[in-house]
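Re: [ENG-882] Designed sequences occasionally contain unexpected residues at chain ends

Forwarding the minimal case from QA. Structure tokens:
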């Protein structure tokens, strides 16, 4: 598969990752299952990681992973590359669906999952690419001011709404929104470069 090296956004052979993603999405619109499998191989580990981080439950994260790619299959024609990358779209979709799942959870749905029951849906090379992306995200978040970093973690990893964050931190809602907006702006600048 693709190992990141050289210029950002390019695979080891120099191919533009965005162009590959767009070509695969065009094939999915034409109902090409092999293209869906290729995107699953590219981004399944990343989607699983996001869902697992939010849900803290491997079985539920696997269900979200399947749900996200099923959604991708049905919504490929609506993906707009001008609004962001495919990886970003998949991550946001996984995060939002995971938060929705958290909010619907009942106490009895917190069953323990044994490590031997977990099937990882990605290969080692994809894991390396995912880990590099996650390391970059962690590095960018670590460089944020501590108040912004805390809010990002509460909003995007713990799944709290702006109102819930304001209640937890005892800060005005407007302050929470401003800090989150500034943090997101910093993240966009880091990933654009």
């Amino acid at each position: 598969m693709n190992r990141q090296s050289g210029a950002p956004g390019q695979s080891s052979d120099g191919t533009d990752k965005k162009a590959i993603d767009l070509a695969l999405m065009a094939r999915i619109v034409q109902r090409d299952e092999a293209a869906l499998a290729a995107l699953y191989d590219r981004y399944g580990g990343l989607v699983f990681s996001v869902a697992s981080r939010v849900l803290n439950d491997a079985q539920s994260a696997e269900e979200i992973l399947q749900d996200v790619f099923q959604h991708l299959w049905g919504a490929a024609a609506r993906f707009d590359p001008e609004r962001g990358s495919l990886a970003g779209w998949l991550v946001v979709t996984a995060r939002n669906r995971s938060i929705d799942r958290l909010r619907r959870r009942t106490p009895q749905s917190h069953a323990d999952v044994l490590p031997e029951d977990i099937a990882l849906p990605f290969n080692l090379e994809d894991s390396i690419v995912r880990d590099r992306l996650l390391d970059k995200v962690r590095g960018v978040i670590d460089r944020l001011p501590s108040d912004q970093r805390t809010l990002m973690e509460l909003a995007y990893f713990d799944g709290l709404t702006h109102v819930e964050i304001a209640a937890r931190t005892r800060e005005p809602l407007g302050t929470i929104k401003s800090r989150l907006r500034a943090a997101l702006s910093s993240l966009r600048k880091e990933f654009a470069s």
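QA comment: On inspection the terminal residues look reasonable. Residues 1-14, 108-124 have pLDDT under 50 and may be disordered. Proposing we downgrade this to a documentation issue.
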